Amino acid sequence: MMREDDLLTLAVVMVLLVLSAIVVIAMTAGNIVNQLLAPVPSVGGPLGAAAALFVFVLLAGKGMALVIGQL
Known about the structure:
With 71 residues, this protein is mainly alpha-helical. The chain contains 2 helices and no strands. Helix 1 runs antiparallel to helix 2. The protein is rod-shaped, with a radius of gyration of 17 Å.
């Protein structure tokens, strides 16, 4: 039988794994956005990086809000 400490540790590890997966997905989406914007001269470079950062923050924030809502 699992003790309360073991269950708490398991819950924390699971939340960290889910949040890590959300961050990886958001980083991938940001990278895809940056690559899609790269051929456009006026949008590439710093503006493309800003768009990628926006997508990352948006997806990571929504994903973490979903996880926190499930707790």
